[in-house]
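ARCHIVE CARD
Drawer: 12
Card no.: 0347
Subject: one protein chain, sequence and derived structure
Cross-reference: see card 0346
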Amino acid sequence: MSQAGPKFRRVLLKLSGEALMGELDHGTDAAEVQRIARQIAAVREREVEVAIVVGAGNIFRGLEAAAAGMDRATGDYMGMLATVLNALTLQDALEHLGAHTRVMSAIDVKEVAEPYIRRRAMRHLEKGRVVIFAAGTGNPFFTTDTAAALRALEIHAEAILMAKNGVEGVYDADPAENPDAKFIPAIAHREAIERELKVMDSTALSLCMDNALPIYVFNMGDEGNIDRIVGGERVGTLVSNGPPN
C-alpha cells in the first residue's frame, strides 16, 4: 500500500457490474464484492472522499434473452434498476467494514435509497460517507459511463478512477483479440475519442474533455491500485487534457 499522502481530496470510482461477478458467468460473487469493498474502505481511511458509480452488466447478462427485441428505453430502465441492486450489495459490504455509506438513486426508490440531490451528496462526502450513485442518470439512452462523468463533475471530484477487468489500462487495440496490442500509458481525451479507444463511451469522454477532468484507467484485479493512484503513483493509463508524460 502506498505510504505517500493522498494526492486527491475527492474521487469518483467507476465500477462495471462485471467487476462484481468474479469468475461467474453472471450474478454477484460475494467474495469479489468484499475484496472491492476492502479497497474502497482502505482509501476512505486515508481521508479521501469517495463516490462510486456502479454498472449492471453482471445482472443484465442474465437478462439478455428476455431483453432481446425489447424497446431500448425499457431495456435501459431495467438496467438502471439493476444498478440499484448492485449499489445495495456494495453498500452492505462497505458497512460490514465500518464504512458509513449512502446509496443515492436517480430513480425514486425511497424505501431503499435516497433520491439523488447534489448538495446532499456533497454533504455526505464532507461527513466522510462513501456515496454510491445508482440508476445512472435516470434517463434512458445514457450509459453509466456518462453518469460517472456527470456525477464527478457535479460533486467537484478531482478525478475519475475507471476500473477495468483483466487489463492494465488503455491499449491501441483490444488485447483480448490482438496479442500485439500496445499499452498506452497516457493519452489526451481528444485523441482517445478520435481513435475510438475503449476508455468509456464517447458522450462521457467528451464531457470529461470539455471540463478537463482526468481519468485514470486501471486494472481492478490488483488490490493495491486504487490506493496507489490516490497516493500519486502512475498506474494504468492517464487520460487528460495535458501533454502525455
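Annotation on reverse: The longest helix spans residues 72-96. The radius of gyration is 17 Å.
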